Amino acid sequence: MHVIMMGPPGAGKGRQAGRFARERGLPKISTGDILREAIKEQNPTALAAKARMDRGELVDDAMIIKIVADRLAKPDVQVGFVLDGFPRTVAQAQALDELMERMESGPLIVVDVAVPEQELVRRLASRRICSVCGTNAGPSDAATCAKCSGELVQRTDDDQGVVLERLKVYQQSTRPVLDYYRERPTFRVVNGAQPPERVASELNAMIDDAAAAKR
Ligand SMILES: [Zn+2]
């Protein structure tokens, strides 16, 4: 089973991807995790990518694709995968298609965890962080941080600005990726503006349905 989890920042896509991967015994592959792993393993492409990031430069598609390709060549991926945060551009999506063809695996099941922008902004505004260690408080009502007992505070406007900027970047670069996949019989949209439990159960059913539909 080869699943790609898409969705804007704040949609809960990472958490859903992790949960689904655990339940189905699939490796969850996120580009952040891969990069950290690959740097630890002294993967030359990953080290070059890190050097660029350290200089404040962007890591280009070719580099990201190479790093993901190296990761997908590992044996644990034979059962499938849940991709989180990749592909982010159409060029990456095309490269992944080529990779899948070469690996003779697939089909890719693409799930968009869709949440309206107003709801994302509302979630963001109600989100609190620890004033001491910066940990995200999540939806809890607690007054203090679970990790260090520091005081929980509302995020600043600056933080909100950062997230709004990320949303804008998402709209510009990742929307086209959804359009790239949209016409496929294995493309699904789940309503992410529901309680996480509900999203998870709908997502499970949709993925099974898409797997049965095949290419
Ligand atoms: Zn704390």
Report low-confidence residues grouped into runs of 5 or more: none
Euclidean distance between termini CA atoms: 13 Å
Alpha-beta content class? alpha/beta
Strand % is: 5-15%
Largest sheet: 5 strands, parallel
Q: Which series of helices and strands comes N to C?
A: EHEHHHEHEHEEHHEH
Overview of this structure, please?
By secondary structure, the protein is of the alpha/beta class. Helix content is 51%, strand content 14%. α2 packs across α3, α2 crosses α4 and α6 (117-125) packs antiparallel against α7. The longest helix is centred in the last third of the chain and has 18 residues, at 196-213. The radius of gyration is 18 Å and the shape is globular. The two termini are 13 Å apart. 28% of the residues are buried. The mean pLDDT is 88.
Helices and strands, with pairings:
Layout: E1 2-6, H1 13-24, E2 28-30, H2 31-40, H3 44-54, H4 61-72, E3 81-84, H5 90-102, E4 108-114, H6 117-125, E5 128-130, E6 152-154, H7 157-173, H8 175-182, E7 187-191, H9 196-213
Parallel strand pairs: 1-3, 1-4, 2-3, 4-7
Antiparallel strand pairs: 5-6
Helix pairs in contact: 2-3, 2-4, 3-4, 4-5, 6-7
The structure holds zinc ion (ZN).
